[in-house]
Structures are given as C-alpha cells and as structure tokens.
Write a structure and sequence with these properties.
Shape: globular
Largest sheet: 5 strands, antiparallel
Number of helices: 4
CATH superfamily: Peptide deformylase
Strand order of the largest sheet: 2-3-4-7-8
Distance between the termini: 28 Å
Oligomer: single chain
Number of domains: 1
C-alpha cells in the first residue's frame, strides 16, 4: 500500500525517533508499504518519520544511482545491488574530508541543494530480522544512509545549509508546508487549508 509522505513543516520530521523491538506490530507489512511508497515516489531512501512514524527505521535502495555514466563497473554493480533495512541505527563514526553532493528529499519536493558530508561512516544497526551488524560504508551509499539517518535524528538536509541559503528557500519551504506544490506522489501537508 502506498502511504502519503509527510511534507516539510510536520513536527514528526523534527522529532528524534525511538528504538523499536522485535514485537513491533506488523513490521513486515510496514516495510513492504515503505518500499512501495519509496519506489512510487522514485526515491532511493525512506525513513519512518517521513510516513509519520517517529521510530528508528529507514530503508535504502541505491540501484537508481547505478546508471550514472561516471561510475566504474564495480561501483555501478555495488550501487545496483545495495538494498537494506536499517532498524535502531546508530552512526558511530564519520571520517574523511567532507564532500558536496546535490541532495533532495521526498518530504521537501522540488528543492535540491549541495550538502557537505564525510565520505565514510561506520554504523551499528539491525536488519528486518533484528540481526545486528556493524558495517562501514563510503561514497554514495554512505551519503544516502547519512541522509536517512538524519531523519531518525530529527534533522533535514535543509538544516545543514547556510543561513543565506535557508533565507533564499524560506518561501518555497513555506509553500511546501501549506501544500502549495504539485507532486506526482501522495503527500500529507501539515498546514494545508481544508477546502470548504
């Protein structure tokens, strides 16, 4: 089932999410719905707060990046096959010189900006079966994970922009929160006026 994606301005997007346990109700259905919702919106990641749930859960599928011509065959293969569920994740290390990449977010449609992030991360997490992992990722995979991880920490990519950039985006962000935007996927707007 395709779920509505929560738009910029909803308090759930600014809330630090809570851990979940193995007895979380209907987790398999939730994951299936989240993947369907993400693919329907042409996303490469989706975090539970983006569908209104303040829990430490996000998923990533970097296969759309595999078609980029600048990648080596090995890099493309890695991106094409990277699909994961992250539960109760905690980034334990971020290393390397920060690099800029143009990011967007399904909760903030039609806004894309360069964001600086370290190229390499180590993260502890559980998968959909609650098996625990500690893994290190780098490059685009690390970037997508960092973006989704920020969601469960109550951080949006726009929070990482300069004050000047934020001022330039203010009216656009206000319009998004009011639903004054056209998107081709289901969204829930926090400040949209109801039609009488």
């Amino acid at each position: 089932m395709i779920l509505p994606i929560v738009a910029y301005g909803d308090p759930v997007l600014k809330k630090k999410a809570s851990d979940i346990s193995q007895d979380y109700p209907n987790l398999d259905v939730l994951l299936e719905n989240m993947f369907e919702t993400m693919y329907n919106a042409y996303g490469v990641g989706l975090a539970a707060p983006q569908i209104g749930l303040p829990i430490r859960l996000f998923l990533v599928d970097t296969s759309p990046f595999a078609d980029d011509e600048v990648l080596s065959a090995e890099e493309a293969l890695i991106l094409k096959n990277f699909k994961r569920v992250f539960i109760n994740a905690k980034i334990t290390e971020e290393v390397g010189e920060e690099w800029a990449f143009n990011e967007g977010c399904l909760s903030i449609p039609d806004v894309r900006e360069d964001v600086l992030r370290p190229p390499k991360i180590t993260i502890e997490y559980q998968d959909e079966n609650f098996t625990s992992y500690t893994e290190t990722f780098e490059g685009l995979i690390a970037r997508v994970i960092q973006h989704e991880y920020d969601h469960i920490e109550g951080i949006l990519f726009t929070d990482k922009l300069s004050g000047f950039k934020k001022r330039l985006l203010k009216s656009k962000l206000t319009n998004i929160s009011k639903g004054k935007i056209s998107v081709d996927y289901k969204m829930r707007f926090p400040n949209k006026k109801k039609k009488r």
